[in-house]
Design goal:
Shape: globular
Number of helices: 16
Structural class: mainly alpha
Radius of gyration: 20 Å
Oligomer: single chain
Number of strands: 0
């Protein structure tokens, strides 16, 4: 396989499988495994379809066009403003969650060295250190991400292997239909497939090769779906729904990731599980942090018409990392809440807007290099789904 295709697939997987994966079995616990499975397939299909729609629209424009340019060209000023606002809210929400989770890794490393620092300082150290990788550029992110992805794969496989013998089938059969009255499960699931924001960046990296881009998006989105299903079986089958160490208690804990580690440790009484869950959660946060940061820097550079050279690069980096860092310093434990908000923004930005842009682009550009099958009826169905999901979130 072409090394750039492999790198791009891993970038999608790394961007997708992050804090959202950790939150999935927690947020969807009341739905049970079957309900979670339905949510996963519906959200995967909708988000992957819209990733291809983003590719369709992007390929009809110059190679450096980000979502801002695409929205301005197809939807006009109103669409541009909507894209700006939702894009920034989405990516800043995701980065806030990743910085909050990543600071735990830094704190763990300092504790191992018998150095005690505040949570605020660990958040700053995490942001500055890994922000430097983003500052270096796409190639640095690609190669660092590859190493982290292979480490994540090893951690994931070992963790699942350790947990599967402790799976209780009766835990997977439990469900609470009243959970459908809350929007958190749907929105966290949607945000768990929020990789399509990097499609414009992938087009640049793969030199507009349509065959490579289609292959990258499909394989890159399918791998997280399979991983999520296996992960839900492992976590929901091991940790009970109720009780002091149950998933509902984890959901309402001040720090959900630490609570999940504690619950798994209590359920299986294994130090090996504790070690690998800490390792795996840390790597998940890092890979997503890098992918989302890359996307946001490209977005800001295009939106402000700044070339990523010289002092402009510093301005872009500050605009990328300072707002989410401030949010984390003020609200250090807003893990699940940040992902729920990210889900709402994902529905608008990554389902409604791509379908709307494709609908308008097909009226404006007749001769296009790539077109998603299904016709305009499919685009309307996606827009209706997005609006219904937002209303559902607002009501519930």
């Amino acid at each position: 396989m072409d090394h750039k295709i492999l790198g791009s697939i891993l970038l999608i997987v790394g961007t997708t499988i992050g804090a959202g994966m950790l939150a999935l079995p927690i947020a969807t616990a009341q739905l049970g495994f079957v309900g979670s499975l339905v949510f996963l397939f519906v959200c995967w299909f909708a988000m992957t379809s819209c990733a291809f729609l983003l590719l369709e629209v992007n390929l009809s424009m110059p190679a450096n066009s980000s979502l801002v340019t695409m929205a301005r060209t197809t939807l006009g000023p109103a669409g541009q403003i909507l894209s700006w606002v939702t894009f920034l809210l989405l990516l800043y929400s995701l980065l806030s969650a990743y910085i909050s989770g990543g600071s735990g890794l830094v704190q763990y490393l300092f504790a191992a060295l018998d150095v005690h620092v505040s949570a605020s300082m660990t958040s700053i150290v995490f942001t500055v250190f890994f922000g430097l990788i983003v500052f270096i550029g796409t190639h640095a992110i690609d190669y660092v991400n590859r190493g982290l992805m292979f480490a994540k794969l090893i951690g994931y496989v070992l963790l699942v292997v350790l947990l599967m013998p402790f799976v209780t089938v009766s835990h997977l059969a439990l469900t609470d239909v009243s959970a459908l009255s809350t929007s958190g499960a749907l929105m966290v699931t949607v945000s768990s497939f929020g990789y399509s924001v990097i499609v414009p960046s992938l087009r640049i990296y793969l030199a507009s090769d349509i065959k490579k881009l289609k292959k990258t998006i499909f394989i890159g989105s399918l791998i997280p779906l399979v991983c999520y299903i296996i992960w839900d079986i492992a976590i929901m089958g091991v940790v009970p729904l109720n009780g002091p160490d149950g998933l509902l208690a984890v959901l309402h804990a001040p720090n959900s990731t630490r609570a999940l580690v504690a619950s798994l440790t209590a359920a299986v009484s294994s130090q090996a599980v504790t070690l690998f869950i800490k390792f795996f959660t840390s790597i998940c946060v890092l890979t997503s942090f890098l992918g989302v940061s890359l996307c946001l820097t490209d977005f800001l550079a295009d939106g402000f018409k700044l070339e990523k050279v010289g002092f402009n690069r510093i301005i872009i980096q500050v605009a990328t990392f300072l707002p989410p860092l401030i949010i984390v310093l003020i609200y250090p434990n807003a893990f699940i809440a940040a992902l729920e908000y990210a889900g709402i923004y994902s529905v608008v930005l990554l389902i409604l807007i791509p379908a709307w842009m494709a609908y308008r682009a097909r009226q404006k550009f007749q001769d296009v290099a790539f077109r998603v099958p299904g016709g305009n009826g499919f685009l309307v169905a996606l827009m209706v789904f997005a609006v219904a999901a937002v209303i559902y979130s607002a009501v519930c």
